[in-house]
């Protein structure tokens, strides 16, 4: 095919069709159409870690019949599903001296927490951070809603959703925040294969919000848009402890609306000098835009803002220096832990898995352990911020 034989729209359309058909074929080869992604079962070591109990204590609880029994493998090892973990948590919590020892979520008047993961630097690890954070929180006993606000839909893809196929008739947050005939947000929430984790997927339709907002502002002022995400989330507020929003790498109206709904903000930073410069622009622009919506009446109170160094190459001198530099400037606003760069994370990503779904035996053990330790340290530091916000 000669480029000059076709108009640009036809040429690009042909490439699009070719790619979509091929991706679909690949997907069918890996996941047959009726197969749903499933969470693997967990070893007793993994279960003990997620329950925050000692391995031998977990065995003792089973022996004494204090918690429900689980499946045994042929080799006489216990295997745990996520449902098992929730049942065990409930059994332990009912006898715990201190409330919240095993069920860490909201109690009483604790407010829902909404965390936005932002930066307009592409590839700074927003989606990787959002996915692992949402999953780790769900695995450790929080009720989590993950929201894919990026038209590129990487977070959705990571959860086994293919936008062209699964969202052909809509089903993104756009449907719940659009100006004409919005749907109840409940109608766009999907259960995932992980107990405790629900998802609102994304796709290109989210761009519609960017196109429609200027006219909505002209009609009703800025107020018309900035409260849309918060108002939609309020409809399901009672169902979750935490919402994690994976923002797109741009400061559009949706990102602004997500930020004004947020109680916590995570800014991912790839520790390189060029990325710092772009982050400086990002911060300035965010601040300017937010001040406009605050003047229009937005409530911009929040509980915490933290910078998270991502994709840190352990031992890399320039990166280590950049991290020290931002720690010097921003102090405790930089998380103590950083997410290390690891082939375990990128390799798991290739098969649309997070480290929490992947199996240790498929990796070099030391590589896998280093990556997951770093990921857990980051996520547990964020969980501690949630607990602190709830006054614990
Ligand atoms: N800690 C890590 N170690 C290795 N690879 C990583 C790590 N974090 C992210 N990556 C890889 O880097 C790429 C970009 O990461 P990710 O998609 O999370 O960034 P992003 O900020 O969401 O990008 P975008 O701005 O395009 O949405 C992905 O291929 C991901 O697998
Ligand atoms: Mg992303």
Structure description:
- The relative contact order is 0.12.
- The chain has helices at 8-30, 44-51, 55-63, 82-95, 126-139, 154-158, 163-166, 173-177, 207-220, 223-226, 228-234, 253-261, 273-295, 317-330, 343-350, 365-389; strands at 42-43, 71-72, 78-80, 113-118, 144-148, 190-191, 197-200, 242-246, 264-269, 304-309.
- The protein is globular.
- The longest helix is centred in the last third of the chain and has 25 residues, at 365-389.
- The chain folds into two domains: 42-95, Multidrug-efflux Transporter Regulator, Chain: A, Domain 2; 113-389, P-loop containing nucleotide triphosphate hydrolases (Rossmann fold).
- With 392 residues, it is α/β, with parallel strands linked by helices.
- Helix 5 (126-139) packs across helix 16 and helix 11 (228-234) packs across helix 12.
- Strands 6-7-5-8-4-9-10 form a seven-stranded mixed β-sheet, sandwiched between helices. A three-stranded antiparallel β-sheet has the order 1-3-2.
- Residues 122-128, 150, 152, 154, 249, 310-311, 339, 341-342, 345-346, 349 line the site of adenosine-5'-triphosphate (ATP).
Please specify the SSE layout and strand pairing.
Blueprint: H1 8-30, E1 42-43, H2 44-51, H3 55-63, E2 71-72, E3 78-80, H4 82-95, E4 113-118, H5 126-139, E5 144-148, H6 154-158, H7 163-166, H8 173-177, E6 190-191, E7 197-200, H9 207-220, H10 223-226, H11 228-234, E8 242-246, H12 253-261, E9 264-269, H13 273-295, E10 304-309, H14 317-330, H15 343-350, H16 365-389
Parallel strand pairs: 4-8, 4-9, 5-7, 5-8, 9-10
Antiparallel strand pairs: 1-3, 2-3, 6-7
Helix pairs in contact: 5-16, 11-12
Bound molecules: adenosine-5'-triphosphate and magnesium ion (MG).
């Amino acid at each position: 095919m000669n480029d000059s034989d076709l108009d640009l729209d036809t040429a690009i359309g042909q490439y699009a069709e070719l790619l979509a058909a091929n991706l679909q074929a690949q997907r069918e080869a890996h996941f047959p159409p009726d197969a749903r992604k499933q969470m693997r079962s967990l070893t007793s070591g993994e279960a003990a870690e997620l329950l925050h109990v000692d391995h031998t204590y977990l065995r003792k609880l089973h022996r004494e019949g204090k918690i429900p029994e689980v499946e045994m493998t042929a080799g006489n090892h216990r295997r745990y599903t996520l449902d098992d973990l929730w049942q065990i948590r409930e059994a332990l919590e009912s006898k715990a001296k201190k409330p919240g020892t095993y069920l860490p979520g909201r109690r009483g008047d604790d407010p829902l927490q909404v965390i936005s993961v932002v930066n307009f630097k592409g590839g700074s690890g927003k989606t990787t951070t959002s996915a692992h954070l949402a999953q780790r929180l769900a695995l450790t006993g929080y009720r989590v809603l993950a929201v894919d606000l990026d038209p590129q839909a990487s977070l959705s893809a990571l959860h086994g959703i293919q936008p062209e196929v699964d969202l052909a008739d809509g089903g993104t947050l756009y449907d719940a925040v659009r100006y004409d005939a919005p749907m109840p947000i409940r109608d766009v929430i999907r259960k995932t294969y992980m107990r405790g984790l629900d998802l609102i997927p994304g796709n290109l339709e989210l761009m519609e919000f960017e196109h429609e907002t200027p006219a909505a502002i002209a009609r009703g002022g800025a107020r018309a848009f900035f409260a849309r995400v918060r108002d939609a989330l309020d409809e399901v507020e009672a169902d979750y402890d935490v919402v994690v929003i994976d923002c797109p790498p741009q400061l559009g109206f949706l990102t602004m609306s997500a930020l004004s709904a947020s109680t916590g903000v995570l800014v991912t930073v790839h520790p390189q000098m060029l990325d710092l410069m772009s982050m400086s622009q990002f911060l300035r622009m965010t601040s300017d835009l937010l001040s406009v919506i605050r003047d229009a009446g937005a409530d911009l109170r929040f509980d915490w803002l933290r910078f998270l160094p991502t994709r840190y190459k352990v031992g890399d001198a320039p990166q280590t220096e950049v991290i020290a530099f931002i720690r010097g400037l921003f102090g405790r606003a930089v998380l103590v832990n950083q997410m290390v760069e690891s082939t375990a994370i990128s390799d798991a990503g290739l098969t649309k898995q997070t480290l929490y779904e992947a199996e240790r035996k498929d990796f070099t053990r030391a590589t896998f352990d280093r990556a997951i330790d770093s990921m857990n340290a980051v996520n547990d530091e964020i969980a501690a911020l949630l607990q602190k916000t709830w006054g614990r």
